[in-house]
Amino acid sequence: MTITIYGIKSCSTMKKAFTKLDDLGVSYEFHDYKKQGIDKDSVKRWVNEIGIDKVLNKRGTTWRKLTEEQKQSADANIDNAIDLLVENTSMIKRPIVEGELTDKNKNILLCGYDEAEFDKFFFVKEYGYHQ
């Protein structure tokens, strides 16, 4: 099983996700947006799979600090929104958890921290992972 968790280390939601994965004994790689940035292909893949409304965090301060023109551009065109996310990674909802459960040949993509979703994918035996 290969799991990558994307986000910002100091984020309180990220800390909850790290704690949950550690408690469940799930090994993962951490990709820090602040240090590593993010490539456009990854953001595009996430948006295509789960939608821009889930990936783009409009409740955060970075979104609120944008000009009206920037907001309208992102709302009007998905490619503009993706470019904005690549340039402003703090607007990506955290965490993004992506990986493959190899014993079930199942890909996962979680956006945001939801304890029930984490349990579903990483703890319940039917979903392919349980220690």
Helix-and-strand structural type: alpha+beta
Number of domains: 1
Q: Please give the oligomerization state of what you see.
A: single chain
Major β-sheet profile: 4 strands, mixed
CATH superfamily: Glutaredoxin
Instruction: Report the portion of residues in β strands.
Output: 15-25%
The topology string of helices and strands comes to EHEHHHHHHEEH
Sequence stretches where pLDDT stays below 50 over 5 or more residues: none
Gross CATH architecture: 3-Layer(aba) Sandwich
Straight-line N-to-C gap: 12 Å
Provide the spatial order of strands within the biggest beta sheet: 2-1-3-4
Q: So what's the overall shape?
A: globular
Bin the helical content. Answer: 40-55%
Number of continuous helical runs: 8
The number of distinct β-strands equals 4
CATH class, anyone? Alpha Beta
Rounded average pLDDT: 89
Q: Please compute the radius of gyration using only Cα atoms.
A: 15 Å
Which keywords apply here?
131 residues; alpha+beta; Glutaredoxin; 8 helices; 4 strands; globular
Topology of this structure?
Layout: E1 2-7, H1 12-24, E2 29-32, H2 33-36, H3 40-50, H4 52-55, H5 61-65, H6 68-76, H7 78-87, E3 96-101, E4 106-111, H8 115-122
Parallel strand pairs: 1-2
Antiparallel strand pairs: 1-3, 3-4
Summarize the model shown.
This protein is α+β, with helices and mostly antiparallel strands and 131 residues long. Helices cover 49% and strands 17% of the residues. α1 (12-24) runs parallel beside α8, α3 crosses α7 and α6 (68-76) packs across α7.
